[in-house]
Design brief:
Tetracycline Repressor, domain 2; DNA binding; 2 domains; mainly alpha; HTH_TetR; DNA-bd_HTH_TetR-type_CS; DNA-binding; repressor
Length: 190
Amino acid sequence: MAPDRRKMIVEAATKSFSLFGFKATTMDQVAKLANVGKGTIYTFFKNKEELFEEIISTLVKEMIAEADAVIQTDLPFTENVHRALYRLLEFRSQHQLMIKLVQEEAEMGTLTVSEMLQHVENEIIAYLKLKIETAIAKGSIPEVNTEVTSFLLLKMYIALVSDWERNHEPLSSEQIAEIMKVFLLKGLPR
């Protein structure tokens, strides 16, 4: 059976981006890691950016599959949102490529990386928006601006999981879920 060169190239590029970041990865490195000629890469991908987009697209699909895996139809909407967001952020923080990309964006501000991370965020927001629209249709939650609510859910979750922990004791999953219920789904207490 002939080797799947495209798959080998994608795997090699993923490894290189994970180790060196987008900016420092060259097509020569990818070719060497994939054990193919550099020209072979160009039979499948126009350039490094297109190869990177392919990898990020696959990564987003994996993230959404991870989130879907923890959703249980018998649980309340708020619990499922919490479970899905937790899984997405857990995936993001444990996946070597995502760690390297976040680091590269923070340290170098590489435009292509910033755009791809924004793409990942947009996909997560679109995923949340769909879940919120479904919950509204079922009568599980009241009518809301789904896009704004999705954005706020993600940003609040990131703030509580990551930003808060820089200067405070980490919050438990239950505490985070309760805070999100109060502020976003029940409204501020009177």
